[in-house]
Description:
Blueprint (H helix, E strand, L loop, with lengths): L9 E5 L4 E6 L2 E7 L5 E5 L14 E2 L4 E2 L6 E2 L5 E3 L16 E7 L4 E5 L8 H12 L7 E11 L3 H8 L5 H4 L21 H23 L7 E3 L6 E6 L30 E6 L3 E5 L4 E10 L2 E11 L10 H4 L27
Antiparallel strand pairs: 1-10, 2-3, 2-5, 3-4, 4-9, 6-7, 7-8, 9-10, 11-17, 12-13, 13-14, 14-15, 15-16, 16-17
Amino acid sequence: MDLIFHRHWIFVGVEPDDCMTVKVGASPVLILRGEDMEIRAFHNVCRHRGARLVTGPKATIGNIVCAYHGWTYGETGELFFAEHMGPDFDHSCHGLKPVHLRTLALAGLIFICLAEEAPDDFDRMAEAVTPYIAPHDIANSKVAYSYDLIEDGNRKLTMENNRECYHCAINHPELTVPLQEYGFGFSPDDIDDYRRADIAKYQAELEVAYARWAGLGLPSDECEALDNTTGYRTRRLVLMGAGESHTLDTRRDSKKLLSNFKDARLDGLSFWTHPNSWYHFMADHAVTFMCMPLGPDRTLVRTNRLVHKDAVEGRDYDLENLIPRLDDDQPAGRGSGRARPYRHRATGL
Length: 349
Ligand code: FES
């Protein structure tokens, strides 16, 4: 935690309307939108005796009032009010401790850094990936659904598992409907005719997709910097079938598309950052994943599904379609225990 999560840029979520909290290891952080619409981050710790200032994951607040002795802070962290501290007390020395914060791709995705001096490569990453992500206009989206999953494993296992799709056909057969496992680069040796035909189909789709993306002005080539402190990789991936979304029928879930997209067939932009996040951006919705270590053998994985801010549930999108299939024993949010019948075309599982 000291060497990575307290030094690197950490993805913590999407911009709140007002206030959100997050905990990085033992460090509670408060993220707040001011009346000037700027987003700022502070240690969620009162400068008097260290009480937690905002409890709960979200809040609507004006000034920040400590519940212990009433010290009151403004939205830019300055200490307004501290009763009975005597004439020599200097309010200006007791403002909230700021935390570095950046938003990515024309705002929307929030990263914080707890180090005194943040790695200076964030801006280079932002410059490289903004042309890929910005067309999806995440700043004008809203969270349609959010859920937390506690995995009984180390954070590195979560991230490593995410970086390969070798296991997808066995463990997430529904993912191999829109995503072709051959798009992830494993050797096509030793395969049967069924899979050989699948690869040929994928490559044909890829050629068409490159031309389609270029025509829409969407960058698609792999873009990565794995040796940076803020390591990242992004690439547009062809989606099979209708190519519109990560759904079982590969069609859009939300009728109201993100941004001002007219064409639902944009396939999917995949993005990943070290050490704790990955994302999928489609025409109709986007999915963000944040993982946070809770201990050496427990990891929080928080998933947000984003739709256009004007999309209306029941009219434009159906939450039943946006929510992944979850096993009965997973401690998730809304949707927990919902199981969908699914039969993999190749394995019959
Ligand atoms: S701990 Fe916050 S006012 Fe005392």
